[in-house]
Design a protein that fits this description.
The longest helix has 25 residues, at 75-99. The strands form five sheets. Strands 1, 2, 3, 4, 5, 6 and 17 form a seven-stranded mixed β-sheet that branches. This protein has a five-stranded parallel β-sheet with strand order 8-15-9-10-11. A five-stranded antiparallel β-sheet has the order 18-19-22-21-20. The protein is globular, with a radius of gyration of 23 Å. Helix 3 packs across helix 6 (174-185). It has helices at residues 15-23, 38-43, 45-63, 75-99, 153-158, 174-185, 205-217, 308-323, 351-356, 372-376, 404-417, 421-424, 436-448; strands at 2-8, 28-32, 103-106, 110-113, 116-119, 122-131, 135-137, 150-152, 166-170, 189-194, 221-224, 227-233, 237-243, 246-252, 254-257, 261-263, 294-296, 336-338, 343-348, 361-367, 383-389, 394-401. By secondary structure, the protein is α/β, with parallel strands linked by helices. It has three domains: 2-136 and 262-323, FAD/NAD(P)-binding domain (3-Layer(bba) Sandwich), CATH 3.50.50; 150-259, FAD/NAD(P)-binding domain; 342-448, 2-Layer Sandwich (Enolase-like, domain 1), CATH 3.30.390. The chain is built from 13 helices and 22 strands.
């Protein structure tokens, strides 16, 4: 069975690439051993955001002076809505692939050589192969990590409980903070144990420290600088951690391991196929591997952003290279978002990252305290911060405010287009809106450069 393109993985790195290839005339086949949509749709981005939306509504009602009694929450309806959104989107992917005449095979595929893939007893051939096999949770070697009730994020979403009495989350990254935000609003006693000095350690440190204050105000027990020593069974579960030389036990009904993810390359390549790897598959700027004709994108590659939209852009760029076309998107500028409340959005360089590259930069920060729309919605403390060169060229932005996941696109666009803060400051933003803070920080920066 011969094709122009074989895609392995039906997540955000694989299925958009398959659609793009098919629409450009490639006979395409896609292999997915699980469900279409991959981790993002089924065990990550989408179910998490669906639950966050619902629990944010609960929090707003509880904290609003307009309501005189505690809201009665239909938790079953919340989780049912999550399932409905996931199923609708998954069915939509299948319909799109069918409409584009992409053949879909449910099974695990192995690449046995350049242009050759085996699935079950069948062999498939294609001029190009695109690997978008994703990642799986990375589990640290912690004593007791295999006990019943100790789960990874994949395990949690496979059988997600509506109620948890006490939840300990090991890891204060994006997944850990979002899960903590969900369950704390559902009445769970949540503890986050983060080894680094602040939450979200891969982002600007001011963001992590602000989020820590907000979560603590919402009764989440946040312990940063915490070294987890062991998990053990005693009246349920207990987790022992050490901070500042002192050991503490915290009880749990469930322990969630959120200690990162690693490329899922197990069983992907035959032993005779030598594809270069380094904590994931190594690729060039067009996402071609060390074996000509085999490409890889998304979480399965080395030094990836680990984001669904990054995987999509990479997959389409890889197919464009196969087709001899220019890449439609700049895959070097990838915005990242955290859907806590307030939301977080980042793109480009932080001040520390710019300094490490030897760049002379300035920063400007504006808080949202005086923003009319933020006052109207009783929004939490927030800010918009930008990083720019001495000549005004924007190189980065960090937002922690309402609608940050939408507003960050303004700065991503500006970085791709090579705009300065002076040029950006010419835009008029509507009033009242959350976006006014963007105009405010740009105007303040531009004034200082006059």
């Amino acid at each position: 069975m011969k094709y122009d393109l074989i895609v392995i993985g039906g997540g955000p790195g694989g299925y958009p690439a398959a659609l793009y290839a098919a629409k450009n005339g490639y006979r395409t086949i896609l292999f997915e051993q699980g469900e279409l949509g991959g981790t993002c749709l089924n065990r990550g981005c989408i179910p998490t955001k669906a639950l966050l939306h619902g629990t944010e509504l609960i929090r707003e009602v509880r904290s609003s002076a307009l309501f005189t009694s505690e809201p009665q929450t239909d938790t079953a309806a919340l989780f049912s809505k999550k399932d409905s959104v996931v199923e609708t989107l998954r069915n939509g992917i299948g319909t799109s692939l069918t409409g584009a005449k992409v053949e879909v095979v449910n099974g695990r595929a192995m690449i046995t050589g350049p242009g050759t893939v085996v699935c079950g007893t069948e062999q498939y051939e294609a001029e190009h192969i695109l690997v978008a096999a994703g990642a799986k949770p990375a589990v640290l070697k912690i004593e007791g990590a295999s006990l019943p009730g100790v789960v990874t994020s994949d395990m949690l979403f496979a059988d997600m409980p509506e109620k948890i009495g006490k939840l300990v989350i090991i890891g204060g990254g994006v997944i850990g903070c979002e899960i903590a935000s969900i369950y704390s609003e559902l009445g769970t006693e949540v503890t986050i144990l983060e080894y680094q000095p602040y939450l979200l350690p891969l982002l600007d440190r001011e963001i992590g420290r602000n989020l820590q204050l907000i979560l603590k105000k919402r009764n989440v027990n946040v312990q940063c600088g915490a070294e987890v020593l062991r998990i053990f069974a005693e009246e349920g579960l207990k987790c022992t951690y050490r901070t500042k030389g002192k050991e503490t036990d915290v009880p749990a009904d469930m322990v969630l391991l959120c200690t990162g993810r690693r490329a899922d390359t197990q069983g992907l390549f035959a032993d005779t196929l030598d594809v270069k790897t380094d904590r994931g598959i190594v690729t060039d700027e067009n996402f071609e591997t060390s074996v000509k004709g085999i490409y890889a994108v998304g979480d399965v590659i080395s030094r990836t952003a680990g984001l669904a939209h990054a995987a999509t852009a990479q997959g389409i760029r890889a197919v464009a290279h196969m087709l001899g076309k220019n890449a439609p998107a700049d895959t070097a500028v990838i915005p990242s978002c955290v859907y806590t409340s307030p939301e977080i959005g980042c793109v480009g360089l932080t001040q520390e990252e710019a300094a490490a590259r030897g760049m002379q930069v300035r920063t400007k920060k504006v808080t949202t305290y005086s923003n009319a729309r933020s006052m109207i919605t009783d929004a939490e403390r927030g800010f918009v911060k930008i990083v720019y060169r001495e000549d005004g060229l924007l190189v980065g932005a960090q937002l922690m405010c309402e609608r940050a996941s939408d507003l960050i696109a303004i700065f991503a666009d500006a970085i791709v287009q090579g705009l300065s803060v002076q040029q950006m400051a010419r835009v008029i933003y509507p009033h009242p809106s959350f976006s006014e803070t963007v105009g405010e920080v740009l105007e303040a920066a531009a004034q200082e450069l006059i």
